[in-house]
M23 family metallopeptidase
Amino acid sequence: MVLKKWLSIFCMVILLTPSFVYGEVQNQETLDRERMSLYSEAEALTFIPWYYFAAIDTYERNIRLARKDIPKRTDGVLSFYISPEDWSGLGNPVQNDSYLPTIHLFGGIGMDGNGDGRANSTNDEDILYTYINRLHYYGPSRSYIKMMLWDYYQRSKTVEMIMGYARMYEKYGKLTIEGNAFPVPLRSDHSYQSTWGAPRSFGGRRIHEGTDIFAHYGVPVRATCYGIIETKGWNRIGGWRIGIRDLQNNYHYYAHLGGFNKEISQGQIVEPGTVIGYVGSSGYGPPGTSGKFPPHLHYGIYKDNGYTEWSFDPYPRLRMWERQERINRKK
Ligand SMILES: [Zn+2]
């Protein structure tokens, strides 16, 4: 009896799964369509290409996910953030005021973007219009947009991230750019364990901020995601290393490389599986130092929240990507 009950639950789960997955895809498509139409509206208003608005929105969405001091949005599809004080004006007794005369009276910046006569702080068009009006507009060229972003965010890392995202959206012409790969070929002889947080001593007391994937010299090292090469070169601990920024504000760090793929350069867009370099044992000294430990790839992920970055354990993702790639190969 119990078995029969479990069996029927099991069957229900099986039956429900495909429609659930399909529903999720549908949702993402609807979201992308709604967002795209708002970015296009912004482009029509400003002559700034849609992909810059997509990039800013993505950056701000990631910030909201990573920070507790900025509220999550429960309605709407955009993530541009304008604080309640900025929107309604300092000292305005109505916290989310939508009445334009009182907003103006208190020096608030909330505006009416959809033409209903109200400045509604939960309406996407009103938010977007208010955000646009807050920008210092110099012109639609790349360098002018960069200046505009600098004025707004006052942080070069943020400006670089947004400019990078914009290039990715421009290249692919769509908002959902997804996929992952395991950093070394599955067929290569490799092993790794969860050692994030273990103590390390070279270069002062610190913790191990990543996972070491042991493999032979010369095994190709591959990008694990879509992203932009943010750093490439030598650092004392990491040796020859590469840093890739993805669309979730993550910085993927590949260290101790034996060499780089010669085709790879800073600022370049990479895809899951793009070979960026080769396993080696470089690091722990001045440029060229090598062989102080067995060859391995040190892989770390750092998350940015708009003012600082922190490391988190990449091990669960590595296991997931490895499993996923195995499954895909069998298909
Ligand atoms: Zn390591």
In short: The mean pLDDT is 92. Helices lie at 2-46, 50-66, 84-88, 100-105, 124-134, 142-153, 156-172, 315-330. Residues 191-330 form a domain with the Glucose Permease (Domain IIA) fold (CATH 2.70.70.10).
